[in-house]
Amino acid sequence: MTVTAVALSHVTAEPEGRTVGDRPESGELAYDPTVVLLTVEEAARRLSVGRTVCFRLIRSGELESITVGGLRRVPADAVPEFVNSRRRQPHRPAHTVAV
Fold it and tell me: Which segments constitute the Helix-turn-helix domain (predicted)?
């Protein structure tokens, strides 16, 4: 009888073919459900907006944020709350530009 050793370093344990220990690709952040606070940049990335727009949403009070030791942080659950509040608002047509 022949016994063949199998390397377990490439066993898929994460979605999308990612393997345990793989690092996110450049510019991609791994999603961690245990994260409670996000940086403004992380919140902006989740909303698919720029950092400046995210700060504008925070300043206007539309997106909740707190300070921790002088650092601005967005509670992770504030992002889906913001999206849900926007979805509940009546639809306003986009501005059109006459050509």
Answer: 37-87
